[in-house]
Amino acid sequence: MKNTVKQIVEKYGNDKTRLMDILIDTQETFGFIGQEAVELLAHQLGMSQVDVNQTISFYHFFSTKPRGEYAIYLNDSAVAHMFGRQAVKEAFEKEVGIKFGEVTADGKIGLFNTACIGMNDQEPAAIINNKVFTRLTPYRVREIIKHIREGRKVEGLINESFGDGKNQLPSLRAMVSSNIRRKGMILSDDYVYGSVTRDILPKMSPEAVIAEIKHSHIRGRGGAGFPTGLKWEFCRRAKGEKHFVLCNADEGEPGTFKDRVILTEKPELVFEGMTIAGYAIGSDEGVLYLRYEYRYMKEYLEQVLAKMRAENQLGKNIGGIEGFDFDIRIQFGAGAYVCGEESALIESLEGKRGEPRDKPPFPVEKGYLNQPTIINNVETFATAVRIVQNGGEWFTQFGTEDSTGTKILSISGDCMFPGVYEVNWGFNVADMLNMVGAYDVQGVQVGGPSGTLIGPDEFHRTLGYSDLSTGGSMIIFGRQRNLLKDVVLNFMEFFIEESCGSCSTCRNMTQVMTNKLKKILNGKGVAKDLDDLKQWGKVLQASRCGLGQTAGNPIISSLKNFAPLYDALIQKDKDFDEGFDLVASVQNSCKYVGRVPNFNHH
Ligand code: SF4
Questions:
Q1: Residue 385 to residues 226, 449, 494, Cα–Cα distance (Å)
Q2: What is the pLDDT of residues 174-202, one digit of tens each?
Q3: CA–CA gap between residue 446 and residue 466 (Å, rounded)
Q4: 461 CA to middle of ligand 1, Å?
Q5: Domain-by-domain residue ranges, the chain?
Q6: Can you give the pLDDT at residue 152?
Q7: What is the pTM of this model?
Q8: 32 C-alpha to ligand 1 centroid (Å)
Q9: In this structure, what are the phi and psi dihedrals at residue 126, rounded to the nearest 5 degrees?
Q10: What SS3 class is residue 397?
Q11: Dihedral, CA atoms, 8, 14, 20, 24, nearest 10 degrees?
Q12: Residue 397 CB neighbour total at 10 angstroms
């Protein structure tokens, strides 16, 4: 073990800021990161064992105990449950002979639950040793387990041709369908990769590139909606030894999967967008921060980067521009929703726990390694290429005045055609439902669990930053669904699991509100409980980062838009809060927080 750990650490230049890569390699080599490995890593990197353990304990996919030769992670999203997860879960337990959370005595198979893996359009889905299995049924589960027991590789179950070293794309598509249903400027096939860097960039100054991006009025596609041109301008002006371009591909919002599709079908567009950004802000280094759930794309994306280097779309003097050097590396996360928050992503990229930083300073001044950094979403970088190609003015003809351009939506749930749709901003919800074949709809979750749950009264509303803002996740629920029990409760449990534990509000109130919801669902609720939930939702909004600030939204927006569902469960003859002990609930929440808080830090 000693030599192997030493080799892994040396592969990353003995650099402790590369701890995430080092831990991922260690986990994948030994199947877990045990105490002996922790001691060796700490010694080799000149760190304390406590610091190494702090990072390990933060991420779902790291484990200090063996997880089995075949670690099976079954997606736990609300949509997975809607499409038969329970039967699939029971089939796994029956075939393997253990419960979820356990590993077989022979160390062969482990069963684990995991939060949304970005496959909502093809549920139920699971990850087994970094390969994805979609549309699972009990029959398929039997096949998989038989295959594993016979000692054969899981790849063989996906596609016989898997592993073709020359072009990984067919294998990727065989494993996971892209389900592109509607194309616009980003997903269309009429752009020849590299033409902007080759033909247009050499004729533009960095300032002119930023001017076009500003003129387009594009706002960040990740959800926050900050003007992209301004971000690039601030970063270009910021002083530092080095500037960085980071692409946030951590799409962890349950229900979103459009970055998965863009990176499968149009990776060159994303990398070209990062390159253009590098030119604009004066950077020679970009990093794609990709969620671990998409580890199955690694070889394919590395192939694409290698091809771009061979074609001088990455590397030195790109596009013949003397002195313009830029390259991109891929950094994987290890399972933490909060790392979608830009400062948490940077912490993770530096090898630490993904805990959001206090702001200011903002990343454009002090970001990755304390240097000026821009962080944009996958879709934003892809869009930037089309803007520079056609001009900012051209771009403003799409969408609305305050939301220009197109938006790529991940649409799932109760509809005939789940998948990815590119529409102009300003599209209305009713048209969207007709487009995807969704009938008799009870509600739509706009923007994932941190967004809003709307009912038919609001289907006239439009998608845009001034009305229904969304990072792209749209989940449709038919009338047959129990919205409070099957959806709202699932979303709240997701936030409990994903809270980084730094703020007491986020750590405790998510749990306390969920306990109150359970009380109501058990038929023990009274009118005062509804008032309490509304008040506590406001307390939660005072949390440090977007996760905590929006974690109460599933309850708050359903209370607002689906009040009769709550009223029907409330005991009308009682008006006092019986059967709910707030103090005990808070104490319990301290015990059952999703992550162990970093007490060294606070
Ligand atoms: Fe962590 Fe939640 Fe606080 Fe964000 S709001 S810093 S996730 S505890």
A1: 18, 30, 35
A2: 899 999 999 999 999 999 999 999 999 99
A3: 14
A4: 31
A5: 2-58, 70-177, 182-395, 406-478, 483-593
A6: 84
A7: 0.94
A8: 27
A9: -145, 155
A10: coil
A11: 0
A12: 10
In this structure, the residues whose C-beta lies within 6 A of any atom of ligand 1 are 338, 356, 499-503, 506-507, 543-545, 547-548
Measured in Å, residue 540 CA sits from the centre of ligand 1 at 10
How far, in Å, from the CA of 416 to the mean position of ligand 1? 37
Q: What is the token pair recorded at 243?
A: 């500037």
Residue nearest to atom 5 of ligand 1 (CA): 548
Length of the chain: 602
- For ligand 1, pick from 338, 341, 450, 509 the residue to mutate: most ligand atoms within 8 Å of CB: 338
Among 235, 244, 252, 322, smallest CA distance to 288 is for 244
CATH topology of domain 182-395: Rossmann fold (3.40.50)
- 469, 455 Cβ separation under 8 angstroms: no
DSSP-derived pairing of the beta strands 131-133 and 126-128? antiparallel
Which is the closest atom of ligand 1 to the Cα of 341? 4
C-alpha 562/C-alpha 546 separation (Å) is 24
What fold, for 406-478?
A: Ubiquitin-like (UB roll) (3.10.20)
Is residue 225's pLDDT more than 90?
no
Instruction: For residue 498, give the ligand 1 atom closest to its CA.
Output: 7
pLDDT value of position 223 = 73
